[in-house]
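new request in #modeling-help
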Amino acid sequence: MTTHDKLMEIYQLLFDKFGPQHWWPGDTTIEIITGAILTQNTSWTNVEKAIKKLKETNTLSTEKLYQLETPQLALLIKSAGYYNIKANRLKNFINWLYENYDGDLSNLESLDTDSFRTELLSIKGTGRETADSILLYAYDRPIFVIDAYTARITVRHELVEPGADYEQLRDFFEYNLPQDVKLYNEFHALLVRLGNEFCKPKPKCSECPLEKLPHKLEIEYH
DNA sequence: GACCAGGCACATC
DNA sequence: GATGTGCATGGT
């Protein structure tokens, strides 16, 4: 059995169990980007409250976010946690957009994926997962997003070595799967769903849809 | 009350 | 390059 087959078996089990996840859970490009920054090390339910607040106050647009003072923005996104840092990070992105791309998110569409990723990573507060989430979920680029759940699941199932870093994990998925935006989108969303419900630090393997696949529990991702 | 959550930058060695 | 720390709310 090839690694590709193992990954597709996992994908099929997850899809059969959970069905389509309809990611990213947001309508507009700026909503996806905002969500990607706000969800850093934070549960989505907390982010939802912050997004709701931004919508209620009509501030979830590039123009309004650009006009808002950082302390005002921090208050609006309070429920997402780390709100001072995240207000700065969101402003960093918006300021970068205005300084380099005329404040227009559609001007980013013409970038090739490699330069796009490099540029995103140059913004303070936009790390690899945030950049890759924006590339895949806001701009349909074939980048496989890695997060703590994805790392934990693949390590526990002994698909990668413990201690594999972000780029090694991303290479692993992209090398062993076809370059398919729809697949990357759904697969990562399903892995997060699995992580949320079963593959916790203290796992619930007896109810897990991957229960019958080989796995170990003592391995943890860092 | 402890533990966890869809990271990231920065300091220090 | 590897490791440790601050950042903070809200659900279980």
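bot summary: The two ends of chain A are 28 Å apart (CA to CA).
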